[in-house]
Design brief:
Pfam families: Reg_prop, Y_Y_Y. This is Transcriptional regulator. GO terms for molecular function: DNA binding; phosphorelay sensor kinase activity. Keywords: Coiled coil, Membrane, Phosphoprotein, Transmembrane, Transmembrane helix. The protein has 13 helices and 66 strands. The protein is α+β, with helices and mostly antiparallel strands. Among the domains are: 120 residues, 7 Propeller (Methylamine Dehydrogenase, Chain H); 218 residues, YVTN repeat-like/Quinoprotein amine dehydrogenase (Methylamine Dehydrogenase, Chain H), CATH 2.130.10.10; 94 residues, Immunoglobulin-like; 132 residues; 72 residues, Orthogonal Bundle (Arc Repressor Mutant, subunit A), CATH 1.10.10.10. The strands form 16 sheets. An eight-stranded antiparallel beta sheet has the order 27-28-29-2-30-57-56-55. Strand 3 and strand 4 form a beta hairpin. It is elongated.
């Protein structure tokens, strides 16, 4: 006893999964259907097993199916036979059996399965007609069971258990012992490889035992196909166990069973789905095709690490979330419609929908309820609200207001559209908001009193401000009204409607911590009584985050509330210090399953709530919430996506550079109605962790060569974060950076260095030769340049000497010319003086005498010897100037040549006139004529022209 107590304590200390100890009995757990179109395999699923990491394995008609929470994969047997059985050991090795074949599968490191057949250890003739219908793993032995024999596999050897010629049905493992049913001998226990009959085996003779489950510490619960349940004690005493569903189980034909958490048992049947009972034999749940299963024939059953029940059906696979705090009633037929309001009243549950008012018996949250909703007569149409007023149930309907009495409607008001009721504190009155305004009712008993004529607008919200003042309104307008004359009349004190400057939509008026708040599409507002204006409730809005846009606040108790934001529900607690604690995960599975702005949540007890849905309702038990640690993700596949999608088989994950585009798929074997989210980080590529997302794979393209480490973690809807899974992989360098290429580069570099040095030595020698030759050439060039410079100097000196000589010549010419000018001037003066000369008597000289003297003077003027001497000297100084000029301009006459010589000597007109013995005017005329002969442009100076010759 102490040993079991210690084991019990250790279980709760070290188990990572903490479950509630009861299953909700009202409604139906969420059932996730996996059709063959989803898992892409055969209809029938003969066996289900769960690996230690949570992967689901199914024995399918077309092979072994695996599901990791994200991806279904099918692995056919080599002989293409049906897989009839499956089991998984503690190391994750998957054993399967079919016709004439059994063996085990091992999961590859990054996706895929590798099969090893062990049926080859048996003679082919002994097994070829056998089908393995069940596999049991006990200690280090694997039992592969057919109806004729059981093959026991241990240490790569197989031995066979037979029943002395009798066929078997199924083996069972319970409380550490192996049991076999022989037909017709009955139940036997395997003891040291021998089958020993159970004491009361005759009681179960030919009853077809289909499950044996632990029942307490020493007892075993036995399930038979059509004869009900039995209890066997440790001594082999067997007694029938009568339960409330004994008849139903017999008629449904029990096929399998498992123990689930909290001391419950789930039995799969051939004809009527799954029955769940407790240890007292009470029916807790019945799940069949009517309320969620795809098919009523349960071929196999198992539970996962979260205590979800998995059932392999004759057509499909379903997951039943019995550990969820939310259970459902779904109207699959569509007769009820969308639920707008609900009430539990006098042992019945009422649903107000767009189709009318429906009723079904209600046994309470702690009893099994088999709902059968019926439409209350004359209730067809829209039901807006159900309110329990005193001991009466009042229905606000499209056609008026009714009392619900004995499942009939009695009309108490013909005013249409009873949207809402609000009690008036301190009185027996209550107000109703309806299509045309406000109505007054007496609540003891409920009686219609009057419809107020002063307000003609639709009123959907009513909340008492104080005394006789109320806030009323609809989505377009909020009014503060005051009732007077004993609630006989009403007047409007203030009104706030939608305007271009105030385009708010109003969703309701609610009391939050004794303050009235107004829900709008821009957050919560409060009314400032001093300035008589609405203003944002900034304090609460900031603390609520996205739930500031809630359209409804429903009180739970004390300082706790439901905040509803268009079908998204959060449980909010306002602490005494003013802090706001938000839990938006508990009811995530209900998001988008309710009618927006008409959400309905009513308390059944302090912990259990009924929530209206689009096609039924949900029951939420806050005490049934589970704390489950989510397991770290597994890397399910790695594909190369460089050219199509191809799995990467290399477990070393060394990827060619040209295939540097990969897809990594991952999954957390976490099975819930709300999806898991993932976050990844690629070391060597990412700068930070990614955002949380539901996508279960990530593509990485154009990765540079090098080493990478991929990390991924998962987060459940409840916010639990798993440990990190990581893998490392390598993108190989491009071919030109591979080790072969590098070796080639080294060899090539060595050769280049060797031959380079050799070539460099030759190049140095050649260069030295060229340098020497260049130096010699430079020396020769220097010598030649020096010689040239010396020659240039000599030429320059010679030219300078010639120039000097020329200058001397020019000076001599100039002096000669000036002498001629002086001579001519002297002759002219002499001529003038002779003209003035008189004799002693004062008479001028005789003209004849003067003529002879003048002739001598003229002869002196015309003497060409001076000119001939001048011409000779001028030609010597100016390089045959006259000869070249005469050759170029043959029309020149001697006087023209004289004028050219004098102009070249840069002599003035006056000096030239004296030399030529003419007037200055005559010189100008001769210059003009000379220009004409030489064709000199007018802008060109004549002296410069002659100097250039």
């Amino acid at each position: 006893m102490i040993r079991y107590l210690l084991l019990y304590c250790l279980f709760f200390v070290f188990t990572p999964l903490v479950f509630a100890q009861h299953i909700i009995r009202s409604g139906t757990p969420y059932v996730k259907q996996y059709t063959k179109n989803i898992y892409k395999a055969g209809n029938q699923n003969w066996g289900i097993a769960i690996s230690p990491e949570g992967i689901i394995y199914t024995a399918n008609t077309e092979g072994l199916l695996s599901f990791d929470g994200q991806f279904w994969n099918l692995y056919p047997l080599k002989n293409k036979s049906i897989v009839r059985s499956v089991s998984v050991d503690s190391e994750g090795k998957v054993y399967t059996g079919g016709k004439g074949e059994f063996g085990f599968w091992e999961r590859k490191k990054y996706g895929g399965m590798r099969y090893t057949s062990i049926s080859g250890l048996v003679e082919k003739a002994d097994i070829q007609n056998d089908e393995i219908w069940k596999i049991i793993i006990a200690d280090d032995k694997i039992y592969f069971h057919s109806f004729s024999k059981c093959y026991v596999y241990q240490d790569n050897h197989i031995k066979t258990i037979t029943a002395s010629g009798e066929p078997f049905l199924f083996p069972h493992l319970a409380n550490g012992d192996m049991y076999f049913e022989q037909i017709p001998s009955g139940l036997h226990k395997l003891v040291t490889d021998e089958l020993v009959p159970i004491k009361d085996k005759s009681i179960l003779g030919q009853k077809n035992i289909l499950c044996m489950l632990p029942f307490g510490l020493d007892e075993v619960l036995i399930g038979t196909a059509t004869d009900g349940l039995f209890i066997m004690d440790k001594d082999g005493n067997i007694t029938p166990w009568k339960t409330a569903i004994d008849h139903d189980l017999k008629r449904a034909q029990l096929n399998n069973g498992i123990e689930v958490y909290g001391g419950h048992y789930a039995f799969g049947t051939i004809q009527n789905g799954v029955f769940i009972i407790n240890k007292r034999g009470d029916l807790i749940q019945h799940i069949n095709k009517h309320n969620g299963l795809q098919n009523n024939t349960v071929l196999s059953i198992a539970k996962d690490k979260q205590e979800n029940i998995w059932v392999g059906l004759d057509n499909g696979i379903d997951r039943i979330e019995i550990n969820s705090p939310v259970y459902y009633y779904a109207d699959f037929s569509g007769n009820i419609g969308t639920v707008y309001t609900s009430a539990i009243y006098n042992g019945k549950i009422y649903l107000g929908t767009n189709q009318g008012l429906f009723v079904s018996p209600w046994k309470g949250p702690n009893d099994y309820n088999s709902f059968d909703f019926k439409l209350i007569p004359n209730s067809n149409g829209q039901v807006w609200t159900l309110s329990i007023v005193g001991k009466e149930l009042i229905c606000g309907h499209n056609n008026g207001t009714f009392k619900v009495e004995n499942d009939n409607l009695n009309q108490i008001s013909t005013v249409t559209g009873g949207w809402t009721f609000s009690s008036i504190e301190g009185t027996n009155f209550m107000l109703q908001g309806n299509y045309t305004g406000i109505a007054l009712f007496d609540s003891d008993p409920t009686t219609f009193l009057r419809q107020f004529d002063e307000i003609k607008a639709p009123i959907r919200y009513i909340s008492q401000k104080s005394g006789t003042e109320f806030w009323v309104g609809n989505e377009n307008e909020i009014k503060l009204v005051k009732f007077y004359n004993g609630f006989r009349n009403v007047k409007t004190l203030n009104s706030v409607g939608r305007t271009p400057n105030n385009n708010l939509r109003y969703h309701g008026i609610f009391k939050l911590e004794n303050n009235l708040v107004f829900a709008t599409d821009s957050g919560f507002y409060v009314y400032d009584g001093i300035v008589k204006k609405f203003k944002p409730h900034n304090d609460i809005n900031e603390k609520l985050g996205s739930f500031r846009y809630s359209n409804k606040i429903i009180p739970i108790h004390s300082n706790r509330y439901w905040f509803v934001k268009r079908s998204h529900i959060a449980r909010v607690e306002v602490t005494p210090s003013g802090d706001v604690v938000i839990d938006s995960t508990a009811l995530t599975s209900l998001s988008d399953k309710m009618m927006n702005y008409y959400e309905s949540i009513i308390p059944i007890t302090n912990q259990i709530f009924l929530i209206g849905l689009d096609n039924g309702f949900a029951i939420y038990d806050s005490q049934s919430e589970t704390k489950i640690d989510i397991k770290k993700p597994i890397i399910s596949h790695i594909w190369n996506i460089s050219n199509g999608i191809h799995p990467i088989e290399d477990e070393k994950l060394s990827i060619l550079n040209r295939e540097n585009n990969i897809r990594i798929a991952y999954a957390s074997p976490w099975y819930a109605s709300s999806p898991v989210q993932y976050q990844y980080f690629l070391e060597g590529y990412s700068e930070k962790w990614s955002d949380w997302e539901e996508t279960s794979y990530r593509d990485f393209t154009n990765l540079n060569f090098g080493s990478y480490t991929f990390q991924v973690r998962a987060r459940s809807v409840a916010g639990a974060i798993s440990n990190i899974t990581e893998i490392s992989f390598e993108i190989q360098p491009p071919w030109y950076l591979s080790w072969k290429a590098i070796a080639f580069y080294i060899i090539s570099l060595g050769a280049i260095v060797y031959y380079g040095r050799k070539w460099n030595n030759k190049r140095i020698q050649k260069r030295q030769f060229q340098i020497n030759r260049r130096l010699l050439a430079q020396q020769k060039a220097v010598i030649a340049r020096d010689a040239e410079l010396n020659e240039q100097k000599l030429v320059k000196l010679k030219n300078q000497q010639l120039q000097n000589e020329l200058d001397i010549k020019n000076r001599e010419l100039a002096n000669s010319a000036m002498n001629i000018v002086y001579k001519n001037e002297m002759l002219n003066n002499l001529h003038d003086e002779l003209k003035k000369l008189k004799d002693s008597e004062g008479r001028y000289l005789n003209p004849d005498q003067l003529r002879r003297i003048n002739k001598l003077i003229d002869d002196a003027h015309n003497d060409d010897r001076d000119w001939n001497l001048f011409e000779k000297s001028f030609d010597e100084a100016h390089g045959n100037f006259f000869k070249k000029l005469k050759a170029e301009y043959p029309e020149l006459i001697p006087n023209d040549l004289k004028l050219c010589a004098y102009l070249r000597l840069n002599m003035s007109s006056k000096e030239i006139a004296s030399l030529l013995n003419i007037t200055t005017r005559g010189v100008e005329i001769r210059r003009y004529r000379l220009r004409k002969k030489l064709n000199i442009p007018t802008e060109k100076n004549l002296s410069e022209f002659l100097l250039e010759r």
